[in-house]
Amino acid sequence: MTSYDALLLLSFGGPEGPEDVIPFLENVTRGRNIPRERLEKVGEHYYLFGGVSPINRLCRDLKSAIESDFAAHGVDLPVYWGNRNWTPYLADTVRQMKEDGIRRAAAFVTSAYSGYSANDQYLNDIARARDEVPDAPEIDKLPVYCDRPGFVEPFVDAAKDALSRLPEGARLVFTAHSVPLSQPNRELYVAELEKAAETVARKAAPGAPWDLVYQSRSGPPSQPWLEPQITDHLEKLHGEGVGAVAVVPIGFVSDHMEVKYDLDVEAAGRAAELGLAFARAATPGTDPRFAALPRELLGEKP
Ligand SMILES: CC1=C(CCC(=O)O)c2cc3nc(cc4[nH]c(cc5[nH]c(cc1n2)c(C)c5CCC(=O)O)c(CCC(=O)O)c4C)C(CCC(=O)O)=C3C
Ligand SMILES: [Fe+2]
Which ligand 1 atom sits closest to the C-alpha of 39? Predict the structure, then answer.
């Protein structure tokens, strides 16, 4: 089916305990002009969860789900896992792949979109990790998949489910990670988000109004980032007389910290203060349709 001899699951990485939190945050923000106060605040989000990011278990579970999908469809490829910011570090995974005799791998990234943070930075990660390993395997990133049914359909079901938990007339609010306006390929990132949100909205609540907003901004206040921020937007909707919101984290593939804290704690808390009914839609996570995407994308590659 493919000329690749391995699949590489490539993700962001996250701390596995309290002592990992600061070194992890330093890895993420090295050279990126993030204020120290923001780091300390984000550190608290992780401590609230025992210093453990949910993203690691999500990656382990997704890896198993991909392996099951491969097995069920007769795809005989090993699946490896490596991260940008924490163990298992990508370079160590690439070294292991080399030792195992892997020559050519396809990378499935836990981000569905184009843009610098969501795509280009992962390409840089691959190049840097390969530079560290003599005679490293070739690694091709699989294409962005924000428009694929395997990504979109789980969100359609999740949006319907969130709406079903709310009174009639709830507003669909799609949310994605903000990025600086100056970030390379920001326009493409936004265009893809709008398209994905539009597709999900059309299928989940035909004809109903919806919004795309942003969350988790981290730069200095002087630097413009994508807006509006979700909490400001909830206030605006409340002011307009909207009584309920179904929040769909369309910018993410799993319930990692940006979802568990910034939405389930912060945005839900703001909604509660406002008396706004709030339901958060699930992310694709290990949905079998999502776990089938690596196989489907591989099948399109020579
Ligand atoms: C577009 C985008 C995605 C979606 C695409 C994708 O999924 O890759 C994403 C995902 C994630 N971001 C994550 C964590 C963090 N991101 C930070 C900082 C930043 N993110 C940015 C953008 C994005 N980030 C940007 C422009 C910055 C500023 C610094 C820089 O220019 O790079 C910081 C620093 C502290 C802070 O928040 O200020 C942390 C801790 C985690 C792991 C969560 C967990 O542990 O469960 C995940 C999945
Ligand atoms: Fe981030």
Answer: 35
